[in-house]
Amino acid sequence: MNAFGAFVSAKAVVPEMIARGRGAILFTGATAGVKAGPKSAAFGPAKFAMRGLAESLARDLGPKGIHVAWINVDGAIKIPGREIRGLAPDAMLKPEAIAETYWHLVHQDPSSWTQALEVRPFREKF
Predict the structure, then answer these.
(1) Whose CA, among 37, 72, 75, 95, lies 20 to 30 Å from 101?
(2) Nearest alpha-carbon partner for 107 in 95, 119, 99
(3) Which residues of the chain have pLDDT under 70?
(4) The domain 2-119: what is its CATH number?
């Protein structure tokens, strides 16, 4: 469903974006889409496929004015009222900071579009 849902969603919005000559499609990835873990047999390949879809769409739709990017969200997300044992608050991604990153991507100048981006807390080991 992960990759298929991304494909169906893109298929639904692309015709209108092409007609307008602009738009943005942002796909949220995960580290499993870059390096599969031993316990990610279902999730990992789906995120690899989504990343491939984003790359293909970026090449196809970019010349038509549509910005397509894949964002690897690499880290735990700080959800209000929910703590993760063993993680300090500054070792987690803030939802508002992630949103600012997405906002920036949508409003980039076409002369310097970002196609792939990773966000992670500064304390994340990678």
Answers:
(1) 37
(2) 99
(3) 124-126
(4) 3.40.50.720
